[in-house]
Write a structure and sequence with these properties.
Layout: E1 6-7, E2 14-15, E3 21-22, E4 49-58, E5 61-70, E6 76-82, H1 90-101, E7 105-109, H2 124-130, H3 137-152, E8 156-166, H4 168-177, E9 183-189, E10 216-221, H5 229-241, H6 245-248, E11 251-255, H7 272-288
Parallel strand pairs: 6-7, 6-8, 8-9, 9-10, 10-11
Antiparallel strand pairs: 1-2, 2-3, 4-5, 5-7
């Protein structure tokens, strides 16, 4: 029988139904993401920020999210931060604080919360099977819409809305650009462009090229074995051939010597020079398109 959530003897902790300790969003690295290169991981402080976990109502569900914004400020540009398959762990929370230090309200909803706690699984294979494979694109789009609505009611100016996502979140970033008419700009970090469709994921970015509501900047690695350059070139050609204004306005930057997850500063895949360059290009993209 599955165990209900129970209180831990440690204040602020509970156990999930699988018996693992639940940790507040953004306070630790996900177990399945090990090994962690802790010494190289960027650590952004909380000075001048309001940051931490919040709860967002979405379709009758109370969705946890990590929010960071300048303390006491309102009418802030909003950026949605979409995680990798590991969920909203320490790396994603730090990215939110990096944006907040620059004047954004950054929010990272835990988009896997209905299916389970992604931080509690010890292997990528188990996490993929037990959680990720059960998350539908329809659910994710609705939860992101809810995060936008929450942001607008809590200090954000949703007329200046951007989104960025990493790996799993990179694909979602492309999809949200074809979903949200509020969106001004998007930055997708090494998100899949044309994987095999599935019942819960019937369409991919390359299928939605003609439906974009905002221009997308794609940041990809030339040595990414999971997203071959052939896929990137096909996506470039589809964007160029589209009559959609935002498709034609989308761009790719490919870093020839980087592989997958080159921005993930807590992992061995991190490539500092390309990660920093991509970050600056992302900020410039948001500024160019009216988010910042």
């Amino acid at each position: 029988m599955l165990k209900p959530e129970v209180e831990s003897l440690v204040p602020g902790q509970t156990f999930d139904r699988r018996g693992f300790v639940k940790i507040a969003l953004g306070s630790a690295f996900a177990a399945a993401a090990l090994p962690v290169m802790a010494q190289q991981a960027i650590k952004t402080d909380f000075a001048g920020l309001t940051a931490g976990e919040v709860t967002i109502p979405s379709g009758g569900f109370s969705m946890p999210a990590y929010r960071a914004q300048p303390e006491g400020k309102k009418n802030l540009p909003v950026v949605l931060v979409v995680s990798e398959i590991f969920g909203v762990h320490e790396y994603v929370a730090d990215i939110c604080r990096r944006f907040a230090k620059l004047g954004y309200l950054a929010i990272a909803p835990e988009l896997f919360a209905r299916q389970g706690d992604p931080q509690s699984f010890g292997s990528i294979q188990e996490l993929q099977r037990e959680v990720i494979a059960k998350v539908s694109d329809v659910q994710v789009m609705g939860d992101l819409d809810a995060a936008v609505a929450w942001s607008g009611a809590n200090g954000g100016d949703v007329s200046r809305l951007g989104i960025t996502g990493f790996c799993w979140g990179g694909r979602i970033t492309w999809l949200f650009a074809a979903h949200s008419r509020q969106l001004k700009a998007a930055v997708a970090w090494y998100g899949q462009l044309s994987p095999e469709p599935a019942p819960l994921k019937p369409k991919n970015p390359i299928d939605l090229v003609g439906q974009l509501h905002a221009p997308v900047l794609g940041l990809y690695g030339g040595k990414d074995t999971g997203i071959p350059l052939e896929h990137v070139e096909k996506m470039k050609a589809a964007l160029a051939a589209s009559s959609d204004r935002d498709a034609k306005g989308s761009r790719f930057v490919v870093y020839p010597e980087s592989g997958h997850a080159f921005h993930a500063d807590y992992r061995p895949s991190y490539r500092e020079a390309d990660a920093r360059d991509g970050w600056q290009k992302a900020l410039a993209w948001f500024k160019q398109h009216g988010v910042a």
